[in-house]
Amino acid sequence: xxxxxxxxxxxxxxxxxxxxxxxxxxxxxxxxxxxxxxxxxxxxxxxxxxxxxxxxxxxxxxxxxxxxxxxxxxxxxxxxxxxxxxxxxxxxxxxxxxxxxxxxxxxxxxxxxxxxxxxxxxxxxxxxxxxxxxxxxxxxxxxxxxxxxxxxxxxxxxxxxxxxxxxxxxxxxxxxxxxxxxxxxxxxxxxxxxxxxxxxxxxxxxxxxxxxxxxxxxxxxxxxxxxxxxxxxxxxxxxxxxxxxxxxxxxxxxxxxxxxxxxxxxxxxxxxxxxxxxxxxxxxxxxxxxxxxxxx
Amino acid sequence: xxxxxxxxxxxxxxxxxxxxxxxxxxxxxxxxxxxxxxxxxxxxxxxxxxxxxxxxxxxxxxxxxxxxxxxxxxxxxxxxxxxxxxxxxxxxxxxxxxxxxxxxxxxxxxxxxxxxxxxxxxxxxxxxxxxxxxxxxxxxxxxxxxxxxxxxxxxxxxxxxxxxxxxxxxxxxxxxxxxxxxxxxxxxxxxxxxxxxxxxxxxxxxxxxxxxxxxxxxxxxxxxxxxxxxxxxxxxxxxxxxxxxxxxxxxxxxxxxxxxxxxxxxxxxxxxxxxxxxxxxxxxxxxxxxxxxxxxxxxxxxxxxxxxxxxxxxxxxxxxxxxxxxxxxxxxxxxxxxxxxxxxxxxxxxxxxxxxxxxxx
Lengths: 296, 361
Fold this sequence. Notes:
Chain A is 72% helix and 0% strand. Chain A is mainly alpha-helical. In chain A, helix 1 crosses helix 10 and helix 8 packs parallel to helix 9 (244-250). The longest helix of chain A has 38 residues, at 196-233. The two termini of chain A are 21 Å apart. Chain B is an alpha/beta fold. Chain B is globular. The interface between A and B is large, with 29 and 46 residues.
């Protein structure tokens, strides 16, 4: 049908509406700026392969533990590396992990959750019992176990974190599907001759997608933090790699003598996490038809 | 009936079966609907009106509903014998349904134009024929498509080939047909911006654009206020005249039935107790239940000293009543009524009633 439109990314007019709603609130605009800044920085650094950084983020020098100055905006760390360069160089990695984890988790969650909620019966039973198995483990323990088994690198961290997140999305989507399914418009659509698959794609998913996306943006910061924990324990990113969580935790011992070392990367994590939360909040409003109609 | 029969229901029995009990919602219902005719199903809540409507379009929630016996012949085919996929092919283009709550029957995330386009889409897709295996013979009108063909990107219909634009003229026309004042503007609105009457019009437009020959309207005006109700009823009558579709109109409101219907079927506890042309029914009700319904209804210029209620209430489905199901509430009940169940017999031409009082001696 005509309306893939609501999936606001496909349609010029609808995406302009979304954007104008997001921009109408100051906090959402702030979140949008942070998120876009973060994603653009990551993309540019990834494409240029860190060539535009002021210093090589891994170059060890004798100028250790320098306080912030004009030459080193964020100072230098215990090995004399430029912290500013390292914070920037970490962006592509810290963008890649949550984006990958959440895209897989959301896709899987929407797929399994919709199937379970809409079709019900034995298939629902199977899907939900599988999510129960995953949810039975404490999230971080499960991620640690998988990461340790696969070996420490960033791609394996993605594989380790995804199983922690997807069952939540499956549950969320299934619950939402159950409530959408009982709506009269689903019955009406059936009465006008549509098949189950069409109804699932055109009526169920568009109605559950906004809340799912909002959840995903809120989870973004959490994924970064858990990824940092994996790195700290030694099964995530490995030490020379610049990564915010790793930097915060490794430099925590300098909290009193050189406080910028742990505080700056910690603050960046905070900034990104809050940015995504604010954007998620705004997105929830922007995807609400009642709000959309006010904006044309 | 002079014109030909479109729909014939023969001794349809439907039960709702749960683990603990079983209730009969329809008990051997017979009904014929002619082409272009409006039949109103009237009765108190839970008398089986909606069950009848849903079983025609194949949307009974099964389980718990079980069709025990009977036939629903539509255009010569028994709908109850069809597989789900076959009956799905009837929905929309042959049989349509509109519901009571117009607001919740429209998906809130789509604009009105998209909702109508969705219905057009069903109709257009049905024109597609698939003669052999991988080859797809497409209806030319659909394919070259008013928007220059649907380009497929990786097998998915290109979302940017905006079908709403393609159908725009038809959408506007459909909205105009249901007497919406500003169709161009309305098609850009979301359902929650519509009033109840407008939303019901949109639903009607949606149901009729597929060109069904039978429309089942399940209390479509019950959620509307009286003036809007009259407008919608007039609209439905004029649309019937225009496209010649039959309408089964489910309502609990006798006044509404009187306004819209050609024939009225009065239902009580899963049975049709009286079936008559609308004029005859109101002038000379033959079944005590119909009489009770009419007397409990306020009339203008006729001071009868208050309204009469029918004593008692609709029987609980789990209590089995022996004899005529209305006998505990009937003021004329005979001994015979408490023993046997009367059949629906012809009392006069074009008027049938299921009552022993009307049996020839």
